[in-house]
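Researcher: Structure prediction, please.
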Amino acid sequence: MRRGDVPFAIELEGTEMASDPNAPRSRRALLTAAAGAAGAVAASAAMPLSVAAVATNMQTESDNPTVAQTSITQATDAVVAFKARNTLTGAAALVASAGDETNISTDTSFTGAYGWAPTHDDP
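Model: Predicted structure follows.
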């Protein structure tokens, strides 16, 4: 058989071999692959989970639950760090709450920023 007679043929030292992904592999190749896989597993196990987590962008018109603090830092003088604007007066532009919201106001009309925290019961 001449070179090029078999599709995807590779000539090695005068012998043609088909490039078959299911062909048996040598013991050395298998051991090298196993060692590489074991190294990758060990490296990922040594990495803290927080490093593996990927930050995501906040999505509008939906709840963005998180277990970490979200903050905005503005380091430029005379520039607003965060602006919430409501063009109508039927609800507050910004509502901030802490703790139980059982008794939070349902009417925040004509309010720029509304803050809520339940009262602390003295012992």
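Model: The longest helix spans residues 27-46.
Researcher: Thanks, that helps.
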